[in-house]
Amino acid sequence: MALKYKLILASGSPRRVDLLNQAGIEPSRLMPMDIDEAPKKSEHPRSLARRLSTEKAEAALAAIKGDMTWKGSYILAADTVVAVGRRILGKAEFADEASASLYLLSGRSHWVYTGVCLITPDRKVRQKIVETKVRFKRLSGFEIENYLASGQWRGKAGAYGIQGLAGTFVQKMVGSYTNVVGLPLYETILLLTGEGFDVHSRWPEA
Ligand SMILES: Cc1cn([C@H]2C[C@H](O)[C@@H](COP(=O)(O)OP(=O)(O)OP(=O)(O)O)O2)c(=O)[nH]c1=O
Is residue 176 in contact with ligand 1, taking CB distance under 6 Å? Predict the structure, then answer.
């Protein structure tokens, strides 16, 4: 898809850039937004994905405020959350946290929620929250140790990346694969083309 517009990707995730490129879209600018990603007390994982994707897009909009170079640009942001039931499995900082996450995912199903938020040049907000159900096989201690040694858990929600070695753990998946990797392409294109989205609010012109 050849985008006629300037697109700011409010992200530092190399996966999101790759996925957009896969769809034929080259962001004009990458703006990683450093926001507090801690869930609120008893916040549902779906609500968290919605809130954080909105906050990332909003932060990018605030950052370009008054800069005429970016007038007329779209802003795209996403947030991926992994959860077992309502229990949110964040990005592990250390191997022991990653290990705990993998033991929890072993032999059961979990949900991956990605919130995608697009702000249009006329500052309308288009948003989608996409859900994928993933079932992991039962993982042996050896498989977990081996995975931890690969380092592929770093910087990823739930401490795994389906696009790498952890792809071999997946027994079953229902829903979008690209959603799990960090940006659901089908829905993102719908947002960009202006079809099938939820309008929540409108922000003033940057
Ligand atoms: C579950 C899963 C997540 N991930 C990644 C996607 C996201 O980069 C990351 C989830 O963290 P996010 O907070 O959604 O994104 P991020 O901090 O990496 O990037 P940014 O906020 O700047 O956009 O986990 C995979 O790459 N593969 C997977 O299978």
Answer: no
Per-residue pLDDT tens over the stretch 108-147: 999 999 999 999 999 999 999 999 999 999 999 999 999 9
The SS3 of residue 116 is strand
Geometric angle at alpha carbon 91, from 88 and 94, rounded to 5°: 120
Report residue 128 as tokens.
């989608």
| CA 5 – CA 192 distance, rounded (Å) | 10
The answer to whether residue 1 is domain-embedded is no
Atom of ligand 1 nearest to the CA of 32: 22
Q: Residue ranges of the alpha helices (H) in 114-202?
A: 141-150, 177-181, 185-193
ipTM of the complex: 0.98
Structure tokens at 125: 């907000």
- Residue 92 Cβ inside 6 Å of ligand 1? The answer reads no
Question: How many structural domains does the chain have?
Answer: 1
Does 66 map to a domain? Answer: yes
Dihedral angle of Cα 57, 59, 65, 71, to the nearest 10 degrees:
-20
Q: What is the DSSP letter of 119?
A: E
- Domain extent for 14: 6-202
101 lines ligand 1 (CB under 6 A): no
**Do the domain assignments include residue 142?**
yes
CB atoms inside a 10 Å sphere around CB 91: 17
Q: What is the CATH number of the domain that holds 150?
A: 3.90.950.10
